[in-house]
């Protein structure tokens, strides 16, 4: 699959500002894994970077020397950013994570830079709001209903009110956390209790987000991830990741992403039309888009979408096929440079190493053997010995990532599965003291 070359139609806004070095305002939560990747991309493009974060006392100099704000006070944060960037040649504002995209959007608006609708960030955070606007726009999505979780856990309910299978979803958690498939009324009640416990433990959720959840139609079919750039309201496809492991549930743990896709050109066109429709519904005019879709025969359903790049280190695999990082592509577009990328014939893939069970990580055996598997490019372990492992649906992290590159899709998939088979994750039971009584978790 190739990607059509395109240029940024918004470049004119930058053409008359060349005497001062261009500066990227990067709004990033302290510790965001995307920050360093954007810094590296900016360096390659000869851009200055000014970071806005809460990392006033950070040992990372880029955070410590940047603008220090409080993200829980968005109006004050935007006001401070406008004031402290006065006189600087800010050519783009990038929010690295969902939690700061709304602030980045409003800052870009007040600076007179190209930006998306302010509501766009809210749709990525609040699945219920996203579902409503997508439905109004006639974008294909699963049937859904918004319900109070206390009604599911506090009284006896009848199966006649539901059409199974269903998927329970919190309205605001990410990374498949709390997402569960249920096939009957007993599973619905059990999962609702489980989800309520997850939500009750979240300290950063609003009251509505703790009490209301989505019940969605389960879409049988293959799932894909879509990566692209929106230029003047038009969605431009970068690539599609196939997910060769079927995601049937009851939990929806991401594992294998492989590109280029094996979908037909007709299916690719249908996917792009659905994502374009969602971009219109969200009010996305510019910048990166990451979407998750399901294909049921000839029909494409949008499952999730956000105006940001793909999560984790998965964007690394795009470098194998595009020759530059995803962050570099985003920055080129943001500052008005032409984006001309063609995906090569090389296939690439990543395995997000799943958390096998709850407990304390002791060690991961077999890494050397896994690294020797043909076509394996890199193994990046994110969690260290002594870390408490929490699998889905309560957890939201992976052990790490395995990357592969090969001439064909099949060779990439085989390499990733072979490397994963070499690993032995040793986990110790977790014991917690409760009133002087040791309890195994």
What does this structure look like?
This protein has 441 residues and is an alpha+beta fold. Among the domains are: 108 residues, 3-Layer(aba) Sandwich (Rossmann fold); 75 residues, Dna Ligase, domain 1 (2-Layer Sandwich); 88 residues, no CATH class. 31% of the residues lie in helices and 28% in strands. It has 14 helices and 21 strands. The strands form 6 sheets. Strands 3-2-1-4 form a 4-stranded parallel β-sheet, sandwiched between helices. It has a 4-stranded antiparallel β-sheet with strand order 5-8-6-7, with helices on both faces. A 4-stranded antiparallel β-sheet has the order 10-9-12-13. The N and C termini lie far apart (47 Å). The N terminus is likely disordered.
Task: List the defining traits of the structure above.
alpha+beta; Rossmann fold; Dna Ligase, domain 1; 4-stranded antiparallel sheet; 14 helices; 31% helix; disordered N terminus
Produce a short descriptive summary.
With 441 residues, this protein is an alpha+beta fold. The chain has helices at residues 34-44, 61-64, 74-84, 98-110, 119-125, 127-136, 149-153, 185-200, 207-211, 265-282, 316-322, 326-334, 367-371, 409-422, and strands at 23-27, 48-53, 67-68, 90-95, 144-148, 166-170, 180-182, 212-217, 222-231, 234-242, 256-259, 286-296, 299-306, 347-353, 359-365, 376-381, 388-389, 400-406, 424-428, 431-434, 437-440.
């Amino acid at each position: 699959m190739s990607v059509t070359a395109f240029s940024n139609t918004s470049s004119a806004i930058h053409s008359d500002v060349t005497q001062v070095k261009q500066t990227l305002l990067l709004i990033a939560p302290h510790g965001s894994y995307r920050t360093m990747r954007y810094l590296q991309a900016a360096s390659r493009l000869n851009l200055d970077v000014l970071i806005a974060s809460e990392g006033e006392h950070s040992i990372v100099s880029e955070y410590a020397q940047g603008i220090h704000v409080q993200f829980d006070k968005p109006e004050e944060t935007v006001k401070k950013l406008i004031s402290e960037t006065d006189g600087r040649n800010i050519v783009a504002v990038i929010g690295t994570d969902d939690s700061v995209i709304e602030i980045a959007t409003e800052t870009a608006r007040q600076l007179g830079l190209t930006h998306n609708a302010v509501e766009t960030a809210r749709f990525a955070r609040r699945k219920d709001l996203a579902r409503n606007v997508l439905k109004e726009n006639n974008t294909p999505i699963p049937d859904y209903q918004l319900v109070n979780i206390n009604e599911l856990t506090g009284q006896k309910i009848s199966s006649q009110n539901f059409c199974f299978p269903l998927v329970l979803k919190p309205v605001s958690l990410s990374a498949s956390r709390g997402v569960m498939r249920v096939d009957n009324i007993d599973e619905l009640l059990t999962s609702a209790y489980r989800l309520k416990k997850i939500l009750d433990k979240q300290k950063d959720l609003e009251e509505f987000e703790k009490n209301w959840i989505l019940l969605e139609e389960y879409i049988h079919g293959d799932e894909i991830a879509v990566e692209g750039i929106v230029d003047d309201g038009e969605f431009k496809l970068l690539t599609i990741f196939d997910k060769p492991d079927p995601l049937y549930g009851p939990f929806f743990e991401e594992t294998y992403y492989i590109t280029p896709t094996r979908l037909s050109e007709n299916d690719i066109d249908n996917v792009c039309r659905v994502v374009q429709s969602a971009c219109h519904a969200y009010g996305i005019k510019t910048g990166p888009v990451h979407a998750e879709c399901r294909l049921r025969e000839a029909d494409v359903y949008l499952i999730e979408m956000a105006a940001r790049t793909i999560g984790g280190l998965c964007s690394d695999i795009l470098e194998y096929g595009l020759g530059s990082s995803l962050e570099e592509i985003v920055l080129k577009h943001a500052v008005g440079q032409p984006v001309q990328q063609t995906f090569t014939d090389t296939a690439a893939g990543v395995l997000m190493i799943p958390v096998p069970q709850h407990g304390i990580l002791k060690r991961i055996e077999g890494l050397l053997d896994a690294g020797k598997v043909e076509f394996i490019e890199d193994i990046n372990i994110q969690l260290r010995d002594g870390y408490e492992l929490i699998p889905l649906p309560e957890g939201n992290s992976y052990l790490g990532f395995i990357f592969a590159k090969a001439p064909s899709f099949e060779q990439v998939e085989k390499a990733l599965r072979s490397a994963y088979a070499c690993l032995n994750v040793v986990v110790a039971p977790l014991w917690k003291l409760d009133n002087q009584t040791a309890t195994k978790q």
